[in-house]
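Recall the central idea of this unit: under ordinary conditions, the amino acid sequence of a chain determines the structure it adopts. In this exercise we apply that idea directly, starting from the sequence alone.
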Amino acid sequence: VQLQASGGGLVQAGGSLRLSCAGSGSIFSISAMAWYRQAPGKERELVATISSSGNTNYADSVKGRFTISRDNTKNAGSLQMTSLKPEDTAVYYCNADFGTRWGPRNYWGQGTQVTVSS
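Accordingly, the structure predicted from this sequence is:
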C-alpha cells in the first residue's frame, strides 16, 4: 500500500493550490484522512482532518481558507488552499486510515513542498 501526495509548488501570496493524496495497492476502503505540515525549524502541525463520517476540523490558522475533502470511490483526498500566506510555506503531508487486506492500517504520504512568496 502506498499513499502518494502531489500538487505542491510555488505560489504568490493570495494565490491558491490544491494538494491531492491517493492510496494505491491492496486497499478496500478509506476512512479518516488528515493533512499535516512542517515548516523549517518547526514541529509538524495538524492542519485539517476529515473523519470517516465526513466531519471536518481545521487548525485556527487555516480556517476559512483551506478545505479538506475525501473521495471514497478513489481512496483519495485533497486539500484546497486559498488566500495563501507566506506563513503557509511548509512541507505538507497527508495521512490516511485504510481498510486493507491486512486489516485497518494508517499510512503517511511522502510530503509535498508548498512555498508561498510575499
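The chain has a mean pLDDT of 96.
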